[in-house]
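Retry 2 of 3 after timeout on previous attempt. Resubmitting structure tokens to design endpoint.
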């Protein structure tokens, strides 16, 4: 079993991302983060960066979203080993319309052929009320469903055990 590699990153919201969140506050139209793009380029943390300036070798829908606190949203971006054909230095979060929402630059390069699960945090007051996540799996919900499934499975096992006791003529208190 391989050990998990932890790499820090510096993360910013772009001006376009901040504008989308401000519009959500003022107009009620939520921002829609939808996909991410991985790059082997080490970009400067420039909030004015536009989507056209971000070149990447892998794009995929964001894998999961988790509200960490009211002002912090965590995006999980996964790159399978088979798709990790280049080194990884930067990750862009893009909205459904292709606008660059946020930028993360890793402090250390992740080499090619390494499966990667990135947990990218973005902060903004009430960010979780201002984003439209209808297209993203919610990690917290998936966890709750797993717990519910396990509880249901345990309950069915207890029920089956009780049924066996009744069949054998024992009383159950």
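Retry 2 succeeded. Sequence:
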């Amino acid at each position: 079993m391989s050990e998990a590699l932890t790499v820090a990153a510096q993360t910013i919201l772009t001006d376009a991302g901040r504008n989308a969140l401000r519009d959500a506050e003022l107009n009620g139209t939520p921002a829609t983060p939808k996909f991410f793009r991985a790059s082997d380029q080490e970009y400067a943390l420039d909030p004015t960066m536009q989507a056209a300036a971000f070149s990447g070798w892998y794009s995929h829908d964001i894998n999961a979203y988790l509200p960490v606190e009211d002002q912090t949203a965590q995006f999980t971006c996964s790159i399978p080993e088979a798709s990790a054909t280049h080194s990884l230095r930067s990750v862009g979060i893009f909205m459904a319309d292709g606008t660059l929402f946020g930028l993360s630059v890793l402090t250390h390069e992740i080499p090619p052929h390494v499966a990667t699960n990135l947990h990218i945090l973005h902060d903004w007051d009430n960010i979780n009320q201002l984003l439209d996540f209808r297209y993203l799996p919610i990690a917290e919900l998936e966890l709750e469903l797993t717990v519910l499934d396990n509880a249901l499975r345990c309950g069915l096992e207890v029920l089956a055990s009780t049924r066996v006791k009744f069949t054998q003529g024992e009383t159950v208190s």
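Attempt log closed. Residues 140-152, 158-173 have pLDDT under 50 and may be disordered.
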